[in-house]
Specification:
The chain folds into three domains: 171 residues, Molybdenum Cofactor Biosythetic Enzyme, Chain A (3-Layer(aba) Sandwich); 78 residues, 2-Layer Sandwich (Alpha-Beta Plaits); 155 residues, Maf protein (Alpha-Beta Complex), CATH 3.90.950.20. Helices cover 42% and strands 25% of the residues. The protein is built from 16 helices and 17 strands. The strands form four sheets. It has a six-stranded mixed β-sheet, with helices on both faces. Strands 14-13-15-16-17 form a five-stranded mixed β-sheet, with helices on both faces.
Length: 416
């Protein structure tokens, strides 16, 4: 069953608020076999909302709206829906009582604007919103359904989970099962990987697709199967996964959808080790990635963001002579940073970075994008120089951070 999502609000179009609603909705809908085929973001303009709804109702059996049904003047979705469905408004005692209860529980006093939220279109079925005051409105027309929900994420999520998805399943049943499998791949550019997998892709069953999801220095490959049988989808994914493993072998970093930082955490826990970072050009990005994993406090000791030479000398014990003779971006300095971090953070293994992120600061010998990375444990420090070749600061930082994580993972995998 095809579903279209429309998110409403000027704040989405100007980038003031990131649209997380449609992302969450798509994931939850797909679990129940509903395919999101189109997403539209539209501002708080009556004609634009109407045009988006009209186009969506022609394309999809189910149209889901979020946003624009609050109590303020810029919330115009309800009136727009009345015009679109040629409907009047009436006062809903049920919605009003829900609002009263919500305010009573929070110890607040309702004002006149909030009371207006009890005005609902005559031609809709009101779905009670137990997570907020704005009503959820369900419209039926010619075998198609439009549902308008609040834009507040926790309200939308409660409604989708407890009301909307169960009702959609009851009305339309289930005509598809969708299964995914994602692997992480290293050692390939996107184009090189596509050439390697050209025959593999050509031989995929028509209901299986392969998607490339590249990021700095890494590629996620996602296999997706969509068919009328869950067993058939699972079998297809399993078979194609085995073919990928045969084709890519050691280039597969993870057989599951796990980022390097998650794999590092698992390895550290399994070995009973703690790690730290000493970062210059990456500015704490590696530490941020590591600590983004729940439970990282069990294996992450800390970080020294030694951006200045003063900190490199004072906290990490880097030699002033080496800084003067070789410069901060050098094997000598990055290896001393790693050794210094092992001692300063009292940990078992570390990763250190020093480079030129750009866009300025490069020279003929040390261009923008050149980064020295060292990983170490007590008694062993390994360093490598990389030239990432970009003049974009964020690209160099991302590539350096991911490369550093891969080097650390390599060290951990061979550690006893």
């Amino acid at each position: 069953m095809d579903v279209e999502i429309i998110t409403i609000g000027d704040e989405l179009l100007i980038g003031q608020v990131v649209d997380t609603n449609s992302v969450w909705m798509a994931k939850e809908l797909e679990k129940e076999g509903f395919r999101v085929t189109w997403k539209t973001a539209v501002g708080d303009v009556d004609t634009h909302i109407s045009e988006a709804i009209d186009a969506a109702m022609k394309r999809a059996k189910v149209v889901l709206l979020t946003g624009g049904i609050g109590p303020t003047k810029d919330d115009i979705t309800r009136n727009t829906l009345c015009r679109y469905f040629d409907s009047g408004l009436h006062f809903s005692e049920e919605v009003y009582q829900n609002i009263l209860q919500m305010f009573h529980c929070s110890g607040r006093e309702m004002n006149a604007l909030t009371r207006l939220q009890a005005m609902v279109p005559d031609k809709c079925t009101v779905v009670r919103n137990r997570a907020g005051t704005a009503p959820c409105m369900w419209f039926d027309r010619d075998g198609r359904v439009l549902v308008s929900m609040p834009g507040v994420p926790h309200e939308m999520q409660w409604l989708m989970t407890n009301e909307i998805i169960p009702r959609l399943t009851q009305v339309f049943g289930r005509d598809a099962y969708i299964r995914h499998h994602t692997v992480w791949v290293t050692g390939y550019s996107e184009s090189a990987l596509a050439l390697t997998l050209e025959s593999f892709e050509a031989e995929l069953p028509p209901f299986v697709k392969l998607a490339y999801l590249p990021q700095a220095g890494l590629i996620r490959l996602r296999l997706s199967a969509c068919t009328g049988s869950d067993e058939k989808a699972l079998q297809a994914i399993a078979g194609e996964k085995e073919k990928l493993h045969t084709l890519l072998g050691c280039h597969i970093l993870s057989e599951e959808d796990k980022a390097p930082e998650a794999l590092i955490g698992e390895a550290l826990l399994a070995k009973g080790l703690r790690m730290g970072t000493a970062e210059s050009c990456t500015g704490g990005t590696i530490a941020s990635k590591i600590t983004s994993v729940a439970g990282s406090s069990r294996y992450f000791a800390g970080s020294v963001v030694s951006y200045s030479n003063h900190v490199k000398r004072g906290l990490l014990g880097v030699s002033e002579r080496d800084l003067q003779e070789h410069g901060a971006v050098s094997r000598e300095v990055v290896e001393q940073m790693a050794r210094g971090a092992l001692q300063a953070l009292d940990c078992d293994c570390v990763v250190a970075t020093s480079g030129i992120a750009g866009p300025e600061g490069g020279t003929a010998d040390k261009p923008v994008g050149m980064v020295w990375i060292a990983v170490g444990r007590k008694g062993e420090v390994i360093s490598r120089c990389f030239r990432f070749g970009s003049t974009l600061r964020e690209v160099n930082i991302a590539r350096a951070s991911n490369t550093a994580l891969l080097m650390l993972l390599e060290l951990l995998n061979k550690a006893v």
